[in-house]
Design goal:
By secondary structure, this protein is mainly α. It is built from 10 helices and no strands. The protein folds into 2 domains: 54 residues, Arc Repressor Mutant, subunit A (Orthogonal Bundle), CATH 1.10.10; 140 residues, Orthogonal Bundle (Tetracycline Repressor, domain 2), CATH 1.10.357.10.
């Protein structure tokens, strides 16, 4: 009887393959990367990689699941207990993530995943799960702000969450096309929209009656 392989070893090997695949996607693009490229990058046998991921599609789905876990963990840990600052902190969090080296470079790869989702049902399902989980976390925070009188309670929380993420994705696209784009300026505009100072001079944020 073969000895049982520890779960920690299996998880480490799985993450090793995902990291190598991501580097290949970053260098060659999703469509130009082959499974042979990934085998070579991992320095593992074909069978060893296949046991974890039979196809590129499986790798993408797993990578998107990792992104979801990281996003929710990060949002949950960084959201301020003060509802006045929570949504602004989320914008700052995303801009900081986009600015970071590895994450910033990976934007183009993530956008390729989203483009592929329009044609591939499995990847589309993974993308939609990612979005749904992220939106769910944001909706909870938005509803908290609405109960506190900081956001118009007549506005649909899910639509607000999707609008915020729409701004984030727009900035991601600009960053991928123009690496030196002024993220600080984008952040100031987003915060002005959220704080209600976009159409006039700065003023103290009023609670919605």
């Amino acid at each position: 009887m073969s000895p049982r392989v520890p779960e920690t070893y299996l998880e480490a090997r799985r993450n090793e393959i995902l990291e190598a695949a991501f580097k290949c996607f970053l260098e060659k693009g999703f469509h130009h990367t082959t499974m042979q490229d990934i085998y070579k990058a991992t320095k593992l046998s074909t069978g060893a990689v296949y046991n974890y991921f039979p196809s590129k599609e499986d790798i993408v789905v797993a990578a998107l699941e990792q992104v979801t876990d990281w996003t929710i963990s990060s949002l949950t840990s960084m959201v301020s207990e003060n509802p006045d600052e929570s949504l602004v902190n989320i914008i700052r969090f995303w801009l900081s993530a986009i600015k970071q080296g590895d994450i910033g470079k990976g934007i183009s790869v993530q956008l390729e995943f989203y483009a592929e989702a329009a044609r591939n049902s499995s990847i589309r399902a993974a993308v939609l799960r990612n979005q749904a989980t992220t939106h769910e976390t944001l909706v909870e925070l938005i509803e908290q702000n609405q109960r506190a009188g900081l956001i118009n309670p007549d506005l649909d929380p899910l639509s607000i969450a999707r609008t915020i993420m729409g701004m984030v994705f727009g900035i991601m696209i600009h960053k991928s096309l123009e690496p030196n784009v002024n993220l600080k300026a984008y952040g100031q505009v987003c915060e002005a929209i959220l704080n209600g100072t976009f159409s006039g001079p700065p003023k103290k944020r009023r609670r919605v009656k």
